[in-house]
Amino acid sequence: MNTPAPIRKIFEGVATRPQMFRLFDRHSQRPDRWQSDAAPLYSGEWFEIDEALYDYMLNILPPLWMCGPIFALREFLTGSTTSIFLALRIDGKPRYFHGYCDLSDPTSVETMRATIFERETQPVRAMSREELLEHIWSSTANAYRGYAGDRFPPVMQGQRMVMLWSGTNGTLLKLLDDLTDDEIAAKLPVHMRHLPDIAA
């Protein structure tokens, strides 16, 4: 199974309501869904929402806690991992975000806040290869993505795969992490195909 970075942006742009609910459980197809601890998969994932969705989630249930413009959802996803919603002022404008934090780590919420702020205050809009791959996974319909199963070599089993279109061979499955730059571009919306890489 893939081991994502501790904190990562998983969707580019402001998620709509349907997208938000889909992003909440974007690992639902994993083959070991009921056998393993899902916290490492979800903890650290974040994406942007709008003010209406932030307010909606605040009013569903009384939050577990609220500290200024940051609150935690009362219902835990798994173990000590739950949804955190943040309102941050970035470049003079209010923006809103959702992230999964493992509350057993007392620094997780502040680390998430600081990471989002640093990422979103970059002077030039850019995306890393990892962010491009996460966006592709997040925005691909379940019918066109999945996990390598028993018919694949053992070293590939459990890894994320997406369906590609080959002009000569029709559709084919390929490991998400093995997509070439051209294949990544083909899976992205037009306005995201020529974004620069994030400077190291």
TrEMBL record:
Pfam families: DUF1419. It comes from the Bacteria. Keywords: Plasmid. This is DUF1419 domain-containing protein.
